[in-house]
Amino acid sequence: NKVCVVGLGYIGLPTAVMFANHGVKVHGVDINERTVKLISNKQLHIEEEGLQEKLITAIDTGNLTVSTTPEEADVFIIAVPSPIRDDKSANLEYVRSATKAIVPYVKPNNLIILESTVPPRTVEDVMIPVLEETGYVIGEELLISHSPERVIPGKVFKELVQNDRIVGGINKRSAEATRDLYKVFVEGEIHLTDATTAEMVKVMENTYRDINIAFANELAKISENVGVNVWEAIKLANYHPRVNIHSPGPGVGGHCIAVDPWFLYELQPDLAKMIHLARTTNDNMPKFTAEKVKQTLVNKGISHGRVAVFGLAFKGNIDDMRESPSLQVLQYLDEQGINYTTYDPHITENQLPTQTQNLQEAVSHADMILVLTDHNEFKNFEPAEVAEALRTKLILDTKNCLDHKRWEAAGFEVSLLGN
Ligand code: SAJ
């Protein structure tokens, strides 16, 4: 078997490397020349635990080659972005163009798998019409399926192996061929269904999480007004065997949870009421957070404060700040006329004018530390190391990730989102 993986991002590259390190010949394709050059030099354009050494092995054994153009193969895996546009409609142009790009290389008996998360019916209505251009009989000569990726950034290699996998074929043969392929490294169960159901399942999973987080955020706001610590309350509620409330926070970022619910809304806006409300609730959290910053400063008699913002990535222990709620919090801080510096040990290139790689510089003359992501580095901080540099020792922990007793011992007044 030879596999051609189209799209070498957060999903495509780990997947390509996994197949290659299980003895499968893999050709990886990306339209970005810089990405291809880096990977062929065994260098990474993304951060993921374990990826570096696995990439080195994959290239050194000769099992993984990369270029900007597809090659003939037995299996094609498409793992390209499927974002939303400004008007929240699904942008399927990458899926369409990746499918078009493989058309000249496809041969009878090939299997084509879409891994990108897409609105239900995309395989049937977008991919199949493009693949019909090959002239091969769909479902007979060409097998097609959707096997949505379900791995979480930061734990990709563990989850690629251990998670159950959903495989939706356009027919039984397609589903079974896809299952046989992933069996090479998947230890979780592989569940077979049809392509449209698989698309629906994936979007449902992320929407479930979005709605649950929105619920937690609503509880956080209510708790603030009734004098309850929402974190304590959620922890206690979750001791119930049938309750699993997620955590509140400064917003929902990333390219999945904040995107996929819009796919369902676009399909059925009149029916997707709860989905829409949850999405807008979560989208309002950066504003709520910035207002809380302002209020906390005002309560201390500080009208034009300076804030040291800790965390730009969209969540803890990753290097990805695309669609990060932190960026929106900064925008609202600007609107409130609050000065800030930003510090994130995982974003090693300065991408913002306010960004510094120097912790002391970040906290120097600040009136507050605002924690927006739960990086391990923040949890392990020694408060005494920074305490002297601040003008006012306030800390607002929006992720409830710090050891508050230690910070209080160093003279800090600690506030929480949802308390
Ligand atoms: N967040 C909260 N509260 C929580 C959990 C998360 O505010 O209780 C925030 C995070 O801080 C972050 C955002 O939500 O800003 C999204 O983070 P996440 O950890 O929930 O999810 P992603 O986007 O990294 O990955 C999700 C996963 N989906 C599910 O857990 C159902 C992953 O398994 C998917 O593969 C991935 O989306 C994807 O690619 O679709």
From TrEMBL:
<dbReference type="InterPro" id="IPR014027">
    <property type="entry name" value="UDP-Glc/GDP-Man_DH_C"/>
</dbReference>
<dbReference type="Pfam" id="PF03721">
    <property type="entry name" value="UDPG_MGDP_dh_N"/>
</dbReference>
<dbReference type="GO" id="GO:0016628">
    <property type="term" value="F:oxidoreductase activity, acting on the CH-CH group of donors, NAD or NADP as acceptor"/>
</dbReference>
<keyword id="KW-0520">NAD</keyword>
<keyword id="KW-0560">Oxidoreductase</keyword>
<dbReference type="Pfam" id="PF03720">
    <property type="entry name" value="UDPG_MGDP_dh_C"/>
</dbReference>
<comment type="similarity">
    <text>Belongs to the UDP-glucose/GDP-mannose dehydrogenase family.</text>
</comment>
<dbReference type="InterPro" id="IPR017476">
    <property type="entry name" value="UDP-Glc/GDP-Man"/>
</dbReference>
<dbReference type="InterPro" id="IPR001732">
    <property type="entry name" value="UDP-Glc/GDP-Man_DH_N"/>
</dbReference>
<dbReference type="GO" id="GO:0000271">
    <property type="term" value="P:polysaccharide biosynthetic process"/>
</dbReference>
<dbReference type="Pfam" id="PF00984">
    <property type="entry name" value="UDPG_MGDP_dh"/>
</dbReference>
<protein>
    <submittedName>
        <fullName>UDP-N-acetyl-D-mannosamine dehydrogenase</fullName>
    </submittedName>
</protein>
<dbReference type="InterPro" id="IPR014026">
    <property type="entry name" value="UDP-Glc/GDP-Man_DH_dimer"/>
</dbReference>
<dbReference type="GO" id="GO:0051287">
    <property type="term" value="F:NAD binding"/>
</dbReference>
<dbReference type="InterPro" id="IPR036291">
    <property type="entry name" value="NAD(P)-bd_dom_sf"/>
</dbReference>
<dbReference type="InterPro" id="IPR028359">
    <property type="entry name" value="UDP_ManNAc/GlcNAc_DH"/>
</dbReference>
<dbReference type="InterPro" id="IPR036220">
    <property type="entry name" value="UDP-Glc/GDP-Man_DH_C_sf"/>
</dbReference>
<dbReference type="GO" id="GO:0016616">
    <property type="term" value="F:oxidoreductase activity, acting on the CH-OH group of donors, NAD or NADP as acceptor"/>
</dbReference>
<feature type="domain" description="UDP-glucose/GDP-mannose dehydrogenase C-terminal">
    <location>
        <begin position="308"/>
        <end position="404"/>
    </location>
</feature>
<dbReference type="InterPro" id="IPR008927">
    <property type="entry name" value="6-PGluconate_DH-like_C_sf"/>
</dbReference>
